[in-house]
């Protein structure tokens, strides 16, 4: 069997891989993408759907800003509605954690230098604008220019747009080995198909580690599953996507109302993953804990019925930052994975940045915080 | 030995017989029941102050209903009965329940016997989302439990024994049954006859029902193809238009429609318990695997009654008891091998009869392919056949869960329990692929809508890294 060839080979069909495929084609590079399952099914498809910039490290904001520019024109770019609603994103601090409110204030001052305008709200002003807010809420930081979108639609929409431009996407195609063979990469799939390209981009999320190690590099990648649920629909009223700023994981719930009317709830505790089986099982105790917490943020939830829960497989790194950029040791090899539950908003920007980097050899986005070799010292 | 914790989910004929077998072995099982009183759907009991007799309520099945009710009442002191309690999740050897008081509990088990019963299998018809359209089971429960009819002029549409049973119960109760419209051609019953004769008593009951309908002056039409349920958003159903077997189109005026095609097992709990499923081509459904003894593919999880496979209430009594005996044997109790083999034989007979019913009253697959684009498939989310076809054609969805992700089909309050099978048929027809390749909607907790603000058990949040 002769190997299929393209300019770039991508392993992993989440939002990172699919967006990269689209933007690489826009830059005239031919792409073949291999996805073990169906595109956009795991972290990309099962996450909360936040298109959130605030709360990110300041050095990540240029990438987040690049991304939101794409979100704003996603419908035109993709030729379909991915339910992006630019109704704002809000972080709140509880009364018993006034330090969280102070940190939000400080962040707002710093973020202003990165084109992120945040409005601090408290007291009557906050309650007049958002009357459903629980009495425990002390203050809020509102980013009016952020929003939320439908993760179930987004990954597949990028994939379809890429295919329309000529990208080749193989679903149900599990890459089992990836080697450097002379001047090009040689990837073999479980069913025996072979693929070759001078450039390889690994966007395999929680499954990236085996490929990284195959090329002699180290990455302490783990995975966890978000605990998500959705209520029955109610008349659209909320607007922004809202989350709690707290150092306590169990308090860190968030919710948004989709155009259809349902409240999507996430945060708090996470679930164990089974990456080999492509499965996560939602833990009932996590659901109950999450429902208890979300009632503190929005007490009206207690009268709603939860109709569905779900989870997916997200990849995490010890410093909560992704790996993004070139390999430290292998020419032509690139990575974009490990987004630690915060990759959905970044996805389009990551795709554009990786396409720029691969096609032109450089990018204005500072990728140094995301270097793969930041873990090399720790393991030696 | 009696310290084993065995949980039975469901208190219909399968659950009651399972509980009885466990008590006989000296155990004190927990029986969790969504109903307010044991009996399940088929032998559903009236509220306390209602006084109709078993004969009036259950007709030819009065003696069986009485036996189930009395057996369960006799067990009351020896079981831990939890009525009005929903099992909403199963995880790590525990069932998670929510009771009528809003209290969450988590119960560990050594053996879990799922007797979860069935709900209607419904093939959508254009207009079935109008107020006044009910499933056959819902129409029957309204009558049995509340002594009220779904409308004053009712058409029953669909196929299978329940169609005739509910229609005759309505006629007997004095409702105006406008017509019974059977989508199966009468001729389909001829080749099914040898299998149906395996249960002559049940077959005869069916004949009696049909005669009773005729005596009551109810017109029964066979080989009918539904066109639309008509009406408007304000007043709901005002009639139904069908194509008769001879090709002519006809409208029946009515203010309610009861519709359904046999039943489908309630398999979500087996799914959450991580039981393996397999496609059954005879009924075009994915069903949890069950060995001849009632074991699922998961150790410690047993399946009884229609919740695993639709074989009817009589079979449910046998398969519920068999599942309990197998669980007991697996826990180290001694059980009678002779009794087990007798139960297996009885179940095989019921299975033969059920195969005959599936042949005589087929699921109208072609109706899914012919659904107009503007017909609603998923009533919870108002997803039309056209929207579903669009995600097949433009979204490339050829699998049930992908179609759900892209279209919202099966994403609403019922979680695809009512639309899932029909949606799979629409997808298969549009994608021109065999139905089994479309797969099934994965079960997700909670199995039914769960009010968020219920009293929680003291519950330490768990965070689990990989």
Automatic annotation (TrEMBL), chain A:
Keywords: Oxidoreductase. GO terms for molecular function: oxidoreductase activity. InterPro entries: FAD-dep_OxRdtase (IPR006076), FAD/NAD-bd_sf (IPR036188), Flavin_amine_oxidase (IPR001613). Its cofactor is FAD. The keyword Oxidoreductase applies. The keyword Ubl conjugation does not apply. GO terms for cellular component: cytoplasm. Residues 7-357 form the FAD dependent oxidoreductase domain. This is Sarcosine oxidase subunit beta. It comes from Novosphingobium resinovorum.
